[in-house]
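Exercise: predict the structure of this protein bound to adenosine monophosphate.
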Amino acid sequence: MPEKKSSEAVIAEFEALTRDAAAVQRETLHRILSDNAGTEYLRGRGLAGRTDAASFRACVPLATHADIEPYIARIADGDASAVLTAGPITSISLSSGTTQGNRKYLPFNQELVKSTMQIYRTSYAFRNRAFPVEDGKALQFIYGSRQFTTKGGLTATTATTNVYRSEEFMSTMRAIQSQVCSPDAVIFGPDFAQSLYCHLLCGLLFADEVRIVSATFAHSVVLAFQTFERVWEELCADIRAGALSPTRVTAPAVRKAVSALLAAPNPALADEVARRCAALSNWYGVIPALFPNARYVHGIMTGTMEHYVKKLRHYAGGLPLVAAEYGASEGWVGANVEPETPPESATFTVLPNIGYFEFIPLKASDGGAAAADTSFAEEEPVGLTEVTVGEHYEVVMTTFAGLYRYRLGDVVKVAGFYNSTPKLKFVCRRNLMLTINIDKNNEHDLQLAVDSAAKILAAEKLEVVDYSSHADVSRDPGHYVVFWELNADGNDDVLQSCCDELDRAFTDPGYVGSRKAGAIGPLELRVLQRATFQKVLRHYLSHGAPVSQFKSPRCVGRNNAGVLQILSGNVVKVFFSAAYD
Ligand code: AMP
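Solution:
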């Protein structure tokens, strides 16, 4: 079987790369620095042709996005000289902006396409060893994003769209048995809701061939099957008639491409889908019911996506959930080479040739797990192979796409080593989220609090569909507001207990102390109308945010008035904690 052999070849290559990761890192840094020695950014830093790690660290400072923004702006405006890279920057990637508030511009070039393909192939090779897929298709809920042309004539769009548009993408997808069920017109359709409907329809048309169900982020898979619950009868009607609903799908290019697949009435398939849906209880196991030959569900399920794992597991029935890779618009970091590990404990093994990595040790002042306080003790960055198991770090990357000692802003914990390269557990983004005075809570702390309070709901068969938060300082003392969208109405006593538990679950000493002293007021739980987070998603999409990279904002500041207004305008019940009364 040639494909199997090539998977084994990819694994052998990965084994070789990770055996002496320190040497591969030295070589990678040498390549990046020698290729780009003549760039404006590196010239004049005093490297004088040296490419070793010590000289690099001594001459080139750590940088944040704000530091390199002026360089990227010049490239976007048309400066074609060697500003950050010797080779051309082929387009601009826009980060999703849903976690940080604003969208960052980042350089994109052919090197990033290459490393993306390497990461896809590596992760697939390991997945294929655990869950062999010999042929077939992938039902991929992926969406190209809008693009625009910068003043200097470069295309600006999301990194994922830059990848989907590359020549290599489709051939790699074929090579790794992940050929998308839907035609390109669906992926790049102008309207997200229409594309989602068509992805579902195409998936049903190829139901027996579907081997993998995936999306970039798990949220998109959950959203797809929540939508399926609402539109399945219409999908069946379209299949039965052999004609696409004139109201659901109006974009001409999308209609044309999908109508070609839906050429003839197929009442047998429509009946089969309806029969399978009718046999389900509360949509448990809908994915394997509709796609009986699917082997697993794949997508990013870590970090802010962890919240959706429970729902995904419900839809997936017994199908394995495989957590997808760790990377950013800036570049890739690691692949999941242990696909059988449940998403909650997934780790990412750093590929030592896709960039040069450093790690800033983060030591929590209270000796506990590293917090997200931007001011707490940082030590000198260490190299990829110098990290310590169990410790927390901020990731710093130097890439082939013009980023030098760039602080990614993510906190990771070293879970172990694969050969000599570390396996990272994603912890959270480093930016501080909830703070009123001396308290500090990040998205991970919020997630733990929500998980803890949601346990009370489980007994009532209720779920938190999505959540967000806000530090309300409009009155003194300020207090935390947590927004919850639930799947059904909750009893007031139960919700009051949840509110108390949320308040208690923030264990940061600054918070607890301030609560006891009355310097922070009682936590407020605001229960939202159903589908409020769909409104939030639509709000982001209407402002050009990419659905394929959408992450629900876990903390909404006053600078995000639009979203705050949607959340606050859809509140159905309010509770104040009595935990510290
Ligand atoms: P963006 O460039 O907007 O797509 O966002 C990239 C950010 O998404 C990263 O810096 C991480 O914070 C987060 N992210 C990406 N991949 C993962 C992953 N596998 N697990 C958790 N968070 C991730």
